[in-house]
Design brief:
With 398 residues, the protein is of the alpha+beta class. 64% of the residues lie in helices and 10% in strands. The radius of gyration is 40 Å and the shape is elongated. The protein starts with a helix and ends with a strand.
């Protein structure tokens, strides 16, 4: 029931926000006013006031101050006759609402003007009642205050319509401010995510590439002194290799400076060593600390893997545990690591949570894990397990 009401409200908002809405409603009300005057003829002043009040509503959004003419014409039409037509009621209320909705003037000014107009209409009617030989009490006598009941009702109506329009305006401004604040928050989160990703790239470049390049420079430099019998050309070649490696290190440092986060923990984290499979117990401990249940099982003979393989395997396990916490909180997770024959590292992360609650295979987390596996020439698959839950399997050859 609540969903149906919400959908109806959304459709109504889209309908009233359409550019053609004021023109269609204004034209329909003018046509209705014409039909009403045909069946219930009024004086010329009343007829002009009713038609002008209805027709002017078509411009209430394009030119909000025209709503003053709408209300004034309705008041004049009512003052010229003792009968208040349905068209005047509708157009007057819509005009007052538009004055509050588009804040043509301060609501207090609009209400004050509407109340004065109501009193003026009431006085005109009191004078007309006197001319019709109706029993109208003299001002100051008993019952004379009852003559202004009409002004009181019109004043309350003016107040309600203007305040309703002003309340809608205030609510829409609040909604716009909230949407703007949310957009700013999303932009800040994206910026932080981008800085975090840049910091991660810088760490990996520092720990993997920089270390290897520095080793090349050191080995090439020392070869000219440790290797006996080198020809001058060979010595020159080693020196060129060392010089190229040092130049590459300088360029790499410049690149790391560009990627480094400007300040905060991300910048400090650049100097932290990259995690390896030896850090999995700490990772599982963090997972358990937030309510998760996980264990790691290792098979085969553990061997030291290249840094890129160690990091990729760790990140795959880390992202898989993150998905478990996000989509199956409290599920039991088993991390299996197999150092197989033929230089193949196999990973299997399985949980017993509700498999369908996990995201489809196009999610960013799964895509990132696949990219991690492909980076080292491996492959990764993910999907519901045979016995329920969700399973992530990866094979990383080295």
């Amino acid at each position: 029931m609540r969903t149906t009401a919400s959908q109806f409200a959304q459709r109504l908002r889209r309908l009233t926000a359409a550019p053609a809405y004021p023109w269609v409603t204004g034209a329909a009300l003018t046509l209705g006013a014409g039909v009403e005057l045909v069946f219930f003829p009024e004086s010329v002043t009343t007829a002009v006031g009713v038609l002008l009040s209805s027709a002017s509503l078509m411009w209430r959004r394009a030119c909000p101050p025209v709503a003053v003419l709408t209300v004034a014409a309705a008041m004049v039409g009512f003052a010229a006759d003792l009968n208040l037509s349905v068209s005047s009621i509708v157009s007057g209320l819509m005009g007052l609402y538009a004055l509050g909705r588009y804040r043509v003037h301060h609501p207090a000014v609009v209400v004050a003007g509407g109340v004065l107009a109501s009193v003026a209409v009431n006085l005109v009617h009191i004078n007309a009642w006197s001319e019709l030989d109706l029993p109208v009490p003299v001002m100051g006598e008993n019952g004379s205050l009852g003559l202004f009941a009409e002004a009181f009702v019109l004043g309350v109506t003016v107040l309600g319509a203007v305040l309703m329009g002003d309340a809608v305006r205030a609510r829409e401004e609040t909604r716009r401010e909230r949407d703007l604040a949310q957009a700013r928050l999303i932009a800040m989160e994206r910026q932080r995510a981008a800085q975090s990703e840049r910091a991660a790239i810088a760490r990996e470049l520092h720990d993997i590439v920089a270390h290897s390049v520095s080793m090349i420079a050191v080995q090439a430099e020392s070869a000219t002194y440790t290797v006996k019998g080198l020809t001058p050309d060979a010595r020159e070649g080693f020196q060129q290799i060392a010089g190229t490696a040092r130049s590459s290190m300088a360029e790499l440092r410049r690149l790391l400076g560009v990627l480094r986060a400007p300040q905060g923990e991300e910048g400090a984290a650049l100097t932290a060593p990259q995690p390896t499979l030896e850090h999995l117990p700490e990772l599982l401990g963090q997972h358990r600390a937030v309510g998760g249940d996980a264990e790691v099982r290792v098979s085969g003979e553990p061997v030291a893997l290249p840094a890129a393989w160690e990091l990729s395997a760790y990140r795959i396990v880390q992202e898989a545990l993150t998905n478990v916490r996000k989509h199956a909180p409290g599920a039991r997770t088993v991390v299996k690591i197999d150092y197989g024959a033929g230089q193949l590292l196999s990973l299997r992360i399985a949980d017993d949570g509700p498999g369908p609650a996990h995201p489809p295979g196009t999610g960013h987390g799964l895509a990132g894990m696949r990219e991690r596996a492909a980076l080292v020439g491996g492959r990764l698959s993910a999907g519901p397990g045979e016995d329920g839950g969700f399973v992530v399997e990866a094979e990383l050859p080295w």
